[in-house]
Specification:
Blueprint: H1 3-7, H2 11-20, H3 27-37, H4 49-58, E1 65-71, E2 78-83, E3 89-97, E4 100-104, E5 108-110, E6 125-128, H5 131-145, E7 153-156, H6 166-176, E8 189-193, H7 197-204, E9 211-215, H8 221-227, H9 236-250, E10 254-260, H10 268-278, E11 283-289, H11 303-315, E12 320-322, H12 336-347
Parallel strand pairs: 4-7, 7-8, 8-9, 9-10, 10-11, 11-12
Antiparallel strand pairs: 1-2, 2-3, 3-4, 5-6
Helix pairs in contact: 2-3, 5-6, 7-9, 10-11
The protein binds S-adenosyl-L-homocysteine.
């Protein structure tokens, strides 16, 4: 067993394990709380020595570790490169906003969704991350932030498709909000999906009311199919149906992510088509300037085109913002840093 497996456990499961070792029930809360703070077994001071020895004997101390941090000189954003126990490498981004520290997490090593503009998917999906590996990223980021600081908000927008790793992602979200753990309320969590419709319906029934972000990136099926293979599986009509169901069940508005790509989805006529699609929905559109990924040959648009697209939506009363670019100097786009790291180590 590794510490990571302990980190994937709920308090109840931890209680069962400890009971099988003859420990009293109150120990589970102590162990859970220490693990979520990233404390080594040796320093879990309110646990009896015999239990600490047993933990050391049963579980290796190894967990997710930070391999490298790169800080942006522009805005203090930190790119984190983590190493997993099997040697795989994943990445995350820590953004410092006025309203708190936001951590962007990965849910898979790579991704199999195949979106044309995304670097994470270039080599496919290697494997799912466990709930403990997701939580381990939060624990590491809290460490990087240091004494008196912590992660306040989580966005599941790193590598991977969270709803393609459904069980582990929902388990992680339940661990995240535990008051004895890192204690991040689901109000402060956003989950981004490329639109796996059946999983979106299931997720709406989980009682995990996070903000749902949906990577839409197109006003109609023809355009969407050109850049997102998932659009061949589910039509925009089905996707919008799943969004409306989520809004109805959770009372929360849905965010549509829309990366403006030159010559593909960024014309004013397409903004009008998008506004017709979203009319009357409790939603918000987030315009993302495309982070160009050289391997993909797709280009972003000029500032003028972003403004024109945004104005066309606003005219038709669609709530819209242009997402700030953060960490532009540190390869903030999904999957870029990991790929560079792998390429460099392969060249060594
Ligand atoms: N698989 C999930 C979450 C990961 S990507 C999803 O598809 O939503 C997080 C967001 O970044 C998504 O909206 C994704 O479409 C977008 N994205 C990916 N590559 C990008 C790029 N090169 N430029 C801008 N946004 C990108």
């Amino acid at each position: 067993m590794s510490l990571l497996e302990l980190l994937s456990m709920s308090q109840a499961e931890m209680g069962e394990l400890l009971a099988s070792w003859g420990q009293p029930a109150f120990r589970k809360k102590q162990l859970f709380s220490w693990l979520h703070q990233g404390t080594p077994f040796e320093q879990m001071l309110n646990l009896p020595n015999a239990l600490r020895v047993r933990l050391r004997a049963e579980a290796s101390e190894n967990t997710v570790s930070v391999l490298e941090t790169i800080e942006s000189k522009i805005d203090g954003t930190v790119k984190l490169l983590y190493r997993l126990l099997d040697g795989n490498v994943i990445e995350g981004v820590l953004m410092r906003y006025k309203h708190g520290n936001t951590l962007c997490l990965s849910t898979q090593v790579g991704c199999k969704m195949g979106c044309a503009f995304c670097a994470s998917t270039l080599d496919g999906c290697v494997r799912n991350l466990s709930a403990g590996e997701m939580l381990g990223q939060v624990v590491c980021a809290n460490r990087v932030l240091g004494e008196g600081e912590r992660v306040h908000n989580i966005v599941l927008m790193g590598s991977g498709e969270p709803l393609d790793n459904y069980e582990n992602t929902t388990r992680f979200l339940r661990l995240l909000r535990e008051p004895d753990g890192v204690n991040i309320g689901l109000r402060n969590v956003s989950l981004s999906t490329c639109g796996l419709v059946p999983q979106m319906y299931a997720f709406a029934d989980e009682d995990l009311p996070v903000t749902l972000s949906v990577s839409l990136h197109a006003p109609n099926d023809d355009v969407r199919r050109k850049i997102m293979p998932v659009a061949n599986r589910y039509s925009i009509e089905e996707l919008i149906g799943a969004c409306k169901n989520y809004i109805g069940k959770t009372g929360r508005r849905v965010i549509f992510e829309y990366a403006l790509i030159s010559g593909v989805n960024a014309s004013v006529a397409q903004a009008h088509e998008l506004s017709t699609l979203l009319r009357g929905m409790q939603c918000h559109v987030n315009l993302i300037p495309l982070n160009s990924v050289p391997e993909r040959g797709l280009q972003g648009v000029s500032e003028r085109e972003v403004s024109a697209f945004k104005a066309a939506l606003e005219e038709r009363h669609i709530s819209v913002t242009r997402r700030r670019e953060m960490g532009d100097d540190i390869e903030g786009a999904c999957g870029q840093l990991r790929r560079k790291y792998i390429a460099n180590t392969e060249n060594e």
